# Entry
Amino acid sequence: MGLTQARIAVDAMGGDYAPAEIVAGAIRAREELGVEILLVGDPDKIRACVADPDSLSRVEIVPAEGTIEMHEEPLSALRKKRKASINVAMDMVKQGRADAVVSAGHSGAAMASALLRLGRIKGIDRPAIGAVFPTLVAGKPVLILDVGANVDCRPKFLEQFALMGSVYSEYAFGADNPRVGLLNIGEEASKGNDVAVQVHQTLSESAVINFVGNAEGRDVLSGNFDVIVCDGFVGNVLLKFAEAVGEAAMNILREELPRGILGKLGVLILKGNLKRIKQRLDHAEHGGALLLGVNGVAVISHGSSNAPSIFNAIRQSKEAVDNGVIGHIQDQYQKVAASVTNGE
# Structure
C-alpha cells in the first residue's frame, strides 16, 4: 500500500443514520488512517451531531444543500438538486480537490452522479458495483460484481466486469493472476441461460482473464475464486442474503453462547476468537462496494451503515487510491484496445 495522504470526500448527509454515524466514522478514519476528510453536507447539522467540537478541527466541512431521498428518482432529483451532498462530493473528485467519494445515501443517485460528473472509463459500457465477501479461507476475500448497478446484462458487460474485477483484485488485494468465475447453476459450460452460455465461451477464450469456470452458489465463499461475475439482479439478491446470513449467525452466537455459568465462562475464554469471527462475518467490517468503471474512486456503502462501516468504507477507498486501481483499469483497457487494433 502506498504512503499517500488520500483526500476522501464523505457524503455526510447520505444514509439512514446520517449525519451522526457518518461523521463519527469519518473522524475515526481521519485519526487512525491518516487520510484527509472532507465532510460534505449541511455545516450546522454536521457540527450539531458532534459532542466534542475539537474533533472537527482536523477535518474540512464542505457546504452542500440537501440530499437525494430514497423515494426520489435519481436522475431528475440530481438535476433539481445540483448542490445536493452527493453532487458536491462527486464534483470535488472531478475538480481534483478529492481523490475519492464515500456515500451511504441513495445508491442509484450515487451511481448516476458518478456517471454524469466523472464519466466512464474508455472501453467500459456499464459500470459495476463490486462487493467484497469473506471466504472460508482467512484473509482471502472474493469480489462479486455486479451487485446492483445493472439488472440486465449483455455478455460484453459481464466480460468487462471480469476484467475490471481482475485488476481490482490484483492491485487492491494482491491476488496473483486472479481466478475468475461466472455465477451459474452448474459447473458445465452448457448450463444457465443464453447469456451465461455466451459469457462462458467468451471468458474461456480470453487471453487476459484467468477464467476458471462456473461458480455455483455453494462455491461463492469457498475461497476458490478471487472474482465472481453476475448480473446486478442476482448479485444484489446474493449480497443481501449473505448479509442476512452473517447477521443471523452473529445473533445466534450472542443468544446461545452466554447461557449458563459455563457459557459465560466460555465467552470470556473465547473473547478473542469471537472478535475475529465478527470481523469475518459482519458486513460492516467490509465497508462498502466500489463502483468500478467510472473515472474516479467511488465507494457506495449500505444505507444502514453505522460508524464502523463508514470507517471501513473510507479505508477501502484509501486502498483503491493508494494502489492506483482506476489507473490500472484504464491501462488494461488501452492494452486490450491496442491488441484488437493490431489483430492479436
Notes: The first strand starts at residue 7 and ends at 11.
